[in-house]
Amino acid sequence: MKVRIITSIVAIIGIFPFFWLSDAVGLDHPLHYVFPLLICAIAVVCTWELLHCIGLEKNYFVATPLYLAALCFPMLARVMYQHNDAYIKVAILTVLALIIYLFGVIVFRFGKEDSGKIALMFMTSLYVIGSFSAIVILRDSIALPEAGRYLFLMPFIFSWTTDTFAYFTGRLFGKHKLIPQVSPKKTVEGSIGGMVFCVATACLYGLIVKSAFGDVAPNYIALIVGGLLASVVSQIGDLVMSAIKRQYGIKDFGIFLPGHGGLLDRFDSSIAVTVLLVIINTYYPFFTAV
What is the C-alpha R_g of the chain? Predict the structure, then answer.
């Protein structure tokens, strides 16, 4: 526990400057790229951890394009932050090109490649890369730029609130196992507790933003719906990564964070939430102009 606490404190101190300087300040300003550089670095490490788990991190025929995508797409989200439609087109075309390329690898290296592993790698890597890119998209909220400083924190707040209160609720009241084959310690009661406290935290977050800053108005209905769905999705994200680790017989994805495991072990539930929040915020914004 001591190691976990020390690691958490050091990580928070190290990340804080990047979060503080996360605003989009203009393409010609050096600080414009500070925040997406951090996200790119995390995305690359998480992609490597995932490929290492599957056993493909040194298979450069299939891994190299995904390393490059992890390096480029969070940064591209910032570079193209005023052209979201164009960014989406680039992302879709890149995904299609990757599919064709990987089909070619399977065909021309027939008998040398495991198509099942490549399919799992492709699906999960795009999930990781897309989710980290969505963090930058939330921060650069085009519809209401001043809301971005609050939006990009929500995936972390919602997922970590769910994890924390699901744990404590499960310890106090848990009697029915949720999915013991994947995660033996998780309970139905803990899952429900995580959802309830996540919704409460979402409302509290909106109240704090309104009271402390007052530059945006929270949409409490959107926050309640978003908090509930985010809690469900974050738990699914956690369970999916647990299932992959169990399938490949490992405890953690890496050792980057002593006491916690790898970066992907710490962000597995958070990244599951980012795309969901982008979708909700696009059609039903969490914050509106004052």
Answer: 19
